[in-house]
Structure formats: C-alpha cells, structure tokens
Amino acid sequence: MMDIKQLKYLIALDETQHFGQAAAMCHITQPTLSMRIRNLEDELQLTLISRGQRFEGFTEAGERILAWARSVLSAHDGLQAEAANCRGQLVGSLRFGMVPLASLNPMALLEPLSNCYPELSYQLCSITSEQVIDGLNRNQLDLGVCYLDQIDTTHFEVIELSPTTMGLLFDSRHFDIADAQLDWQSLSQIPLGLLTKGMHYRQSIDMSFASKGISPHIQLESDSTFQLLQAVTAGLCCAIMPLNSGMESMNEHLRILPIIDAQVHSRIGLLMRKSEPRSALAERCFAKAQEIFAADQLLSE
To answer: Which of 70, 137, 154, 275 is deepest in the core (most CB within 10 A)?
Structure first.
C-alpha cells in the first residue's frame, strides 16, 4: 500500500537526479529505494521513471504524479505541525522564500523566531516574486518576502516592509573610498558586480544609471548573491547592495556606503496566504514577525 516514504523517495530522486544520491539522502540503500519506487509504480499501474543504465528522468505520468506527491507531503507536514500546535508545541520547518537583495536581513526575523520557538527548523530559499506567490498559493511556502507591484495581494496577509535602499559594498583591502556617501556619477569609474539583467533589483539600478545618462563599468554579472560577494572580497569589483542586509558584517574588511537617491522603486512585503489550509506554524510566525517589525519601526522613528 502506498505510504509517505515512497513519495519522499520520489521527490528525493527528482532533487538529485541520481538513484544512489537519492538513496543516501533518504538514508536507505539504493536497491531499497528502487524497489519501493517500483512498488509504487505497480500500485498506480504507471511507469513513473525512464530507466536505462542510470536514471534518465521522469515520464510524463511521473511528472504529474510528482506534483501530487509534493502536495501530499506538504499537507502531511502541515498536519503534523497542526497536531503539535494542538499539544501546545510549535515544531516543524518554516518554509521561507524571499527575493534576493532586499533590505531585509532574513536573520533579523529568523533569529528572534528561533529564540522564541527553539524546536523550529527553517528552509530558506532565494527566488523571484512570482515564485514566492506560486509557492504560497501551492502551500509549498509558509511565508514569503517579495515585491508588491504587479501582484494581486487580496489573497494574502501582508506586512509592508521598509523600502530597499542601496549602497556600495567594497573590500577595504582592495578599494580606498573615503567618502561618507556616494552619488551615481561617482560610481561610473568603479568596476561593479551586478545581478544579471531582468532581475527586479537590477532593473532599479539600470533605471538609475540611465536616468542620469551614465554608462557604468560592469566588471561582473551573476544571478548569485554569493558569487557577487566572492568577487567583492577577491577585489575584482564592488557591488551595489541593499543597506541593512547585514552583508558588510560578514568579514572585517567589508564596508558599505550609502548611495544618494538610491532606492528600489517597488514596495516590498512579507506575505502569508489567507485561505486554508494554512498551518499554525505559519500563523504564529507571521504574528511574531508583526511584533518584530513593529518594534523595529518604533526604534527607527
């Protein structure tokens, strides 16, 4: 009979694209994983996996069953968390998605949550606004931070966050910048590392340069914030990063200087879906976030 573990094995295979790695992720042997997935295929009377000498992907039917498997596992995790809540506990994993390079250090939320709910674990992913909304709608995320323009927020509880303001992040071992703040013109001769074109944060930077007739010196483009940070610490470039994101505290040589009139043009917010199923874990973490951000707002006034 079908069970939750078979669905977990299926999802692990999708994530690793390799029978051996999927088995290791699930802490079982490869023959056991293969046998359990074959049992699932027999029960469903479907071929889910394209097999050769190695894993060759999912069949069309397999892709459709995989989508249902994710929904079933998400509901199962929510049920377990709800049962724990009924017992007076808050356990499980908070699934949190956010757009890259927002003026929110996620640790400013996760650290107080961890102090308040020590049994919680966290799944944190960096994704687009569209993926945040899709994840919340599919109940694959509990909370999400995304840009609010061009998004219908009527189906979500929203905490609007402070606008994303930008500064120049640099490594003092490689660049000597003595100014207290910078303007866009002063950035024109500095080698810059930027997110790739098309990403929301990059669009605001391009608009700011274009509005002032400036052609920046772009040394590096990447869709990875981590790679941009690596390039900065290697001295390859500087990077236009959000203020208050905590990046400058990652080593003693990093500095960030405010850029005059540098703000991402879209509002940003923390979202939770309004409709059921909505876990107690999501509700209590969202309520705690309201307290945290309200306190931060009072401190800044």
So the answer is: 70
Domains of the chain, start order? 4-72 (1.10.10.10), 90-162+267-300 (3.40.190.10), 165-263 (3.40.190.290)
Contact 155, 273 (CB under 8 A): yes
Residues 6+ away with beta carbon under 8 Å from 194: 202, 205, 216, 218, 220, 221, 228, 239, 240
**What tokens were used for 150?**
């061009």
Neighbours of 125 (CB within 10 A): 14
Residue 299's pLDDT is what?
A: 38
The model's pLDDT over 22-73, given as tens digits with 9 standing for 90+, comes to: 999 899 999 999 999 999 999 999 999 888 778 888 999 999 998 889 888 8
Phi first, then psi: give them for residue 94, nearest 5 degrees: -80, 120
Cβ atoms within 10 Å of 182's Cβ, excluding its own:
18
Chain length of the chain: 301
pLDDT digits (tens, 9 = 90+) for 168-194: 999 999 999 988 899 999 999 899 999
Residue 213 main-chain phi, psi, to 5 deg: 65, 30
